[in-house]
Specification:
heterodimer; A: 470 residues; alpha/beta; Aconitase, domain 3; Aconitase, Domain 2; 5-stranded parallel sheet; 19 strands; B: 191 residues; Aconitase, domain 4; 2 domains; 7-stranded mixed sheet; 8 helices
Chain lengths: 470, 191
Amino acid sequence: MSPRSLFDKIWDAHIVRAETPDTPATMYVDLHLVHEVTSPQAFAELEDRGLKVRRPDRTLATIDHSTPTLPFKAGTPPPYATDAAAAQVETLYANTARHGIELNGWESEHRGVVHVIGPELGATQPGMTIVCGDSHTATHGAFGALAFGIGTTEVGHVLATQCLLQRKPKSMRVHVTGRPGPNTSAKDIILAVIAKIGVDGGTGHVLEYCGDAISALDMEGRMTLCNMSIEAGARAGLVAPDDKTFAFLKGRNRAPQGAEWNEAIARWRDLYTDEGAHFDREVVVDVEGLRPMITWGTAPDTGIALNDVVPAHRNDSDRKAADYMGVAAGERVSGQKVNRVFIGSCTNSRISDLRAAANVMRGRAISPGVTALVVPGSVWVKAQAEEEGLDKVFKAAGAEWREAGCSMCIAMNGDKGAPGELIVSTSNRNFEGRQGPGVRTMLASPAVAAASAVTGRVTDPAKLKETEYA
Amino acid sequence: MPETFPINSRTFNLTGENIDTDQIIPARFLTTTSRTGLGRFAFHDWRFDGSGSPRANSPLSGFDPTRASVLVAGRNFGCGSSREHAPWALLDYGFRAVISCEIADIFRSNAARNGLLPIVAPETAQQWLLDNPGAEVEIDLEATRVTIAGGPGFDFDIEPFARHCLLSGNDPMGYLLDQTDEIRQFEEVAA
């Protein structure tokens, strides 16, 4: 057999019916993740047709997008932002109950952002095909799974048949090499990668990330990396599994146990790209000495190092973005006045993200006039953070410590900014109005977000230390 | 859903690049459990200010679907989220096709499944259309060709099965359900 990429291997292993010129492939889905926003119309379609969910055991649901993050007393109703949000969540409760699907609802210790709980439960495993009605599904590619977002019509297809109609995407290998500089994380790496590839550079492709800078990342960092593949336009992004992957999964609820674990490891060790495998494109990104990154514009490919200036505008879209953001070509973004800071989202709400933010905030106070929201990715992450005392660090600094959810990343649950405000956010999208109408969003790592909360200005964490200890 | 092809209409231009799904329909309108009636939210924050009053200088000013139902947009239209609410909203608002030199993957697939024709144009044709707003176009789905009155027509690619379903009224769900025996066999062996 000719050499195959990791993506080729996963693809080949999931083809129920091969692609022809007239028809796409029928691709089997190992794990279908479901949330309240993109599923109700799909369940309604099943009802209309009198269909059942084919594999409830391969379907896992949670509530995250529309749910409030404000704390509330057990036994009282959650403080939903709108009646529609409450009704949407209740609809998912009814649909999952009717079809026998596990729902990690309000009462579950694994409720949380769908792309946080899949790995946390060990449901996300190497070699799987994973889909969800959510574009950040590529997060699960960190485990060497082929994971991507689908529309609601396709959610219906997967519910009813456990299959999707797909043409095989093209492939792109992204070699990330070098040792990033101090105070950087996977977030800075992916912002640099997207800046290099462009917001549409990955369109039609599945990315495989490789190289020493990727191997060096821990699993949570790889999740942050793969999470933002869609922000380069890519269908999916993945990393070949290794010992770190297996160590992360061992013993988790849904991971194989006992003899099955050893069999799984043996199988997973074949999940790598063969020498000489074909890629449609290859890109090299050198992150040697990388500095903390931040976006200046309204597309995720506008990342620059914090000590760099906004580049010259290439076109009208750049000019419009700079106007909206209140920045100018040739000027620094660092030092801009910050109104809010958001630490959370499927990109950066895991325990290592919260530790990074807490390390910066520990013993410091956030700047008067800045509102900082820290939103753990799941109930489990929240409990872990509290066990480590991170909640106390955040609260002592003056930040709000919230319940798990998508929160201000998507601003459809009550958490949002006010028009004109500048938010330094650890989320994934800086689109106009993404965090509330007229809100300006700059994407950055948890460390940069925390440092900016402390000074009230867009700040490199290294500068914070220099100022204090000088 | 439009039921008749070809589409004969004028074009309506939105020149910006990277028009994302949060512009097409802001997330706060996604708490619906329905797929109908979303046209009122299409480009909502471009059309209305914070108090809900129409913006005088909206890029959508003058949009009249009875005259111009083909949207011509800058590169990478529909980037961002997987929300199928985006094509639902555009269709309900009155658009029947989107032409751009690049259309984001998930939006393109969602649009085709709902009968909002996603047409990827060569850059020359795209630029001609952007330079000539209100152009008269015919989109022939059968022949996969766009004809532009006085402009450079072009053949376009659309996923053949999606095209077949749109033209024949065939249903991808039915096509998948017909494979139930194969799916069961696959599950016994592989899954």
